[in-house]
C-alpha cells in the first residue's frame, strides 16, 4: 500500500512518484523545514545508483542523497 506523506521518519521505505516501485530507498534523515529527506538507495533495486551522477568522491556514497519529500511515497 502506497501513502503520500510529506513528513517522513527515519527508517521508512519510500518509492519515487516518477520512477515507480523499482526506485526503493530508506529514509536516513528528514528535514521538515526544507522538506527534503536523505535517502539511502536499497541495494539490488533497479535504481540502486540513482545518486551516482551527483557524487564523484566514492562509489559507496553514490547510494545516498537528498531529495524533496514531494517526490516520495511511503512504500
Distance between the termini: 6 Å
Number of domains: 1
SS elements, strand count: 5
- What is the CA-based Rg, rounded? 11 Å
Strand order of the largest sheet: 4-3-2-1-5
Q: Ranges with pLDDT <50 over ≥5 residues?
A: none
In DSSP terms (H or I, runs of 4 or more residues), the helix count works out at 0
- Shape field: globular
Indicate the proportion of strand residues.
Answer: 35-45%
The structural class is mainly beta
The major beta sheet can be summarized as: 5 strands, antiparallel
Written as H for each helix and E for each strand, in order along the chain, the element string is: EEEEE
User: Mean pLDDT, rounded to whole units?
Assistant: 84
User: Helicity, in percent?
Assistant: under 10%
What does this structure look like?
The chain has 75 residues and is mainly β. It has one domain. 0% of the residues lie in helices and 40% in strands. It has strands spanning 13-16, 20-31, 36-41, 64-68, 72-74. The chain has a 5-stranded antiparallel sheet with strand order 4-3-2-1-5, with no helix packed on it. β2 (20-31) and β3 (36-41) form a beta hairpin. The model has no long low-confidence stretch (mean pLDDT 84).
Amino acid at each position: 500500500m502506497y501513502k503520500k506523506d510529506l513528513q517522513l521518519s527515519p527508517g521508512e521505505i519510500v518509492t519515487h512518484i516518477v520512477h515507480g516501485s523499482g526506485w526503493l530507498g530508506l529514509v536516513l534523515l528528514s528535514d521538515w523545514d526544507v522538506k527534503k529527506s536523505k535517502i539511502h538507495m536499497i541495494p539490488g533495486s533497479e535504481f540502486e545508483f540513482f545518486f551516482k551522477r551527483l557524487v564523484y568522491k566514492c562509489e559507496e556514497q553514490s547510494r545516498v542523497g537528498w531529495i524533496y519529500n514531494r517526490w516520495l511515497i511511503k512504500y
